[in-house]
Amino acid sequence: MVAARGAPGRRLLVWHVLPSGQPDVVRLVRDCQDRLAGLGGLDKVPAEWLHMTTQIVGFADEIPAEQVQAMTDAVVERMAKLEPIEVELGKLWFHSEAVMLGVRPARALDPIRKGIREAIAQTVAAHQPADEPDWTPHISVAYSNGTGPAAPIVRALNPPPPPSSLRVARVHLVAQQREGHLYRWEVLSEAPLGG
At the top level of its lineage, which domain of life is listed (predicted)? Predict the structure, then answer.
């Protein structure tokens, strides 16, 4: 994870895909969480805070309001040129920081991130998106709050639950804060795909 995501108490501007209004996604996450219920060391992500981090912009107190507006306008313009994208959510990812659900096809959502990154590069002086690693789109099921073997988690999720479809029809700019082991945010704006 990018270090900025881990700063408690400070608001971070982030573009997210939010699966609100997609009950099959919530059911899939809940199924995974139910299977993990007896295991320690995990903080389940509540349904209202499910998200797919698409691009971190930077700390809100470092980006002037006019740059935030210019960025938002540029993202809206770019997303209007894309059609909504449907992917399969359900590929299990095990990481030292989280249990996650990835998407297939793996690169299907790249045009969304590319458009957001281009908009940021043109409008936000404080952020250099070119310096960031490749993106692996995912929705976290639970965050790790300790250390321990992965084997019990792998066993609990085997066989994996049936995947769900995820329709990405908009992206949201949020002001996010870390609270304990979870992330909470306020939605600032949205950019629909296809106008």
Answer: Bacteria
Domains and CATH numbers, the chain: 7-192 (3.90.1140.10)
* Residue 176 main-chain phi, psi, to 5 deg: -105, 145
pLDDT single digits (tens) 145-158: 888 888 999 999 99
The whole-angstrom separation of Cα 31 and Cα 154 is 14
Which are the contacts of 6, defined by CB distance < 8 A and separation ≥ 6? Answer: 178
Residues in the chain: 195
**How much is the pLDDT for 111?**
97
Q: Write the Ramachandran bin of 120: left for phi over 0, alpha for psi from -120 to 50, otherwise beta.
A: alpha
Q: What residues does 174 pair with on adjacent strands?
A: 14, 187
| φ, ψ dihedrals at 87, nearest 5° | -130, 170
